[in-house]
Amino acid sequence: MGEQKTIRWGVIGCGDVVETKNGPAFYFAEGSELAGIWNRTASKAQEWTARHGHGRAYDCMEELLADPTIDIVYVATTPNCHLRQAIAVAEAGKHCYLEKPIALSYAEAEEIRAAFAKAGTRCFVAHYRRGMPRYREAKRLIDAGAIGKVRGVQIIRTQRQTAEELLPYEQKPWRVRPEVSGGSHFYEGDAHMLDLVDFLVGPIEDFKLEVSNETGCYPAEDVVALSGKTESRVMVSGLWCYATYKAIDRFLIFGDAGSIEFPYYDNAAPLRLETIAGGAGAQVAHEGAMGVVREGPELVVREVETPSDPYVGLGQVQDIVDELRGIPGRTCKSTLDSAMRTLRITYAAEELINAAKR
User: Fold this and answer.
1) What is the C-alpha radius of gyration for the chain, rounded to an integer number of angstroms?
2) Handedness of CA 207, 351, 174, 317 (dihedral sign)
3) Is the distance from CB of 153 to CB of 235 less than 8 angstroms?
4) Which residues of the chain fall short of a pLDDT of 70?
């Protein structure tokens, strides 16, 4: 095979996600270069490129999109900008790496999908955990049958309310202002958790949501309960609350021969793999009084350590680069279609909370 071309990236936006997750990945990934950045505050792009020593600052978005050397554009702005900017990328005939959530609504996401279908270019979505070694190892263990047939997934995620959320509305964090983010923490951030369910055990086919706004601190939901079922009949339950006394972070996948558990927000924590000692025959329990199991099996618990990339988005950026370079067997697993499956659920929460206001 001949030498593959180098994939050159342009970036729209210059916030924290570019600094801490994906920006350096564009020049660390093999076969990848950062062409440059446009930001509405030009000095931020100039400072970023000077400090990192890669790329240049473009004077306007149109200049970046007109650069014939750029193959793919990372749209790293807030969701209220995604529709206009993603469609502009498609119309420029370039591939796109779009921050999540895709847009402010499912209808906007459909417009973006139509634009890329018309352009014949690809749109990947930054559910970057699909590319992290930690979750690739979890999927490998599940697919290899380490916990037997998967029966269910249980998620619980809570946090304390922040002082910033108590500020006057225009001073609140953008993530809890629906006109900017599309909703609140569930819609903007914890969509990652639902995408992980999709990645690890398959798409959620049927679901039911209950939502509530208990604090009245911002317009969107601050409590969400989910019950669902994947295409392969794995039962999924989740509870999210953003105004309670402490942070609870638990992601549990269990099967008929074991479980995998991990904290979602601590990427350095090992996976906890619990399995039955003694093989398949030891799975059979014996009934005791009142129908309960008389005794539990002997269990083996193993902590599975995984390597970590210097930037959490690097694995998925490498997947995108490899796919665009045509390297056999290499594809990015976070597509517009997979992200829209998650958006269908998170946007349903926004529709419910808005309906409750009417």
Assistant:
1) 22
2) positive
3) yes
4) 1-3, 279-294
